Amino acid sequence: MAVAEYSWSEHFDVTSEVKSDFEKHGYIIVRGLLSKEEMLKVRKAAEHLNGLRDFTFEIPDGRGRNSSYCIWSQPGNDVTGMVGRIEKVVGTMEKLLEGEVYHYHGKLVMKEPHTGGNVNWHQDYGYWYKNGCLFPHMGSVLIAVDKADRENGCLQVLRGSHKLGRIDHTFVGGQTGADKERLNQVMKIFTRDYVELEEGDALFFHCNLLHSSDKNDSPRRRWNFICSYNRASNNPVYVHHHPQYTPLHKVPNDAILTCENFTDLSGKDFMDPAVDKTIKIDLEDSEKD
């Protein structure tokens, strides 16, 4: 069972209690961050045949299954870009990370019924560190596009594990995963929380929080929309496949509802998996390492 849960309203703010929960557990959940009306538009944008689906690729999990991903560096001006730019997402993350943030990348993770693969235990900073981000002043917002529960492989987190700092990571299948021997010890002392979400619920989590998800054996798909942010003061020292500091133009909280752009994806800078050194899309090659 997850902890540190709050409900979105126009009066929601990162109070001392919210900040304390984030620092203690490494995450907070904000129920209903996006309304049903907003999620209808997000889902339309995600499912559009001439939209994000044209830029998807698959990553093997090392256990015989794949999950589909679409990753972009800049938010853009379409509906999905509004998600990454609205005040209730960006402003909340800025208060949790205690400073101006910029959009590090956006991601749609697609686990289809009966076939979606595992996401191995890892910290996001386990590989962002390799991109030249010197400090773990980073975090992500995961928004459920579909209902996520244990049956369809919801996210799991080790509560408070961000306090470990960064641990070593290696390739597991096509993914970057936490060192298995260290992970086995860590799992003995931290509580595992299953992050069960309804559509539009959001998980704000620290980049050093260990997290994973199971394969999807259910008849229901499970898609997640993820916006990742880096603090402006933490500009990466290496030029890499994600952006250096780029000022983020925030938009009002009604921007998703007023945006009608579902297909003009110009400026989003979709990622070519061939240039990302933190993933491998050829399982045969990854098994040789």
From TrEMBL:
Matches recorded under InterPro entries: Phytyl_CoA_dOase-like
Source domain of life: Eukaryota
Gene3D superfamilies listed in its UniProt record: q2cbj1_9rhob like domain
Co-factor requirement: Fe cation
Family matches, as SUPFAM superfamilies: Clavaminate synthase-like
Pfam families, alphabetized: PhyH
Stated name of the protein: Ectoine dioxygenase-like
Lineage: Eukaryota, Metazoa, Chordata, Cephalochordata, Leptocardii
Gene expressing this chain: LOC118420775
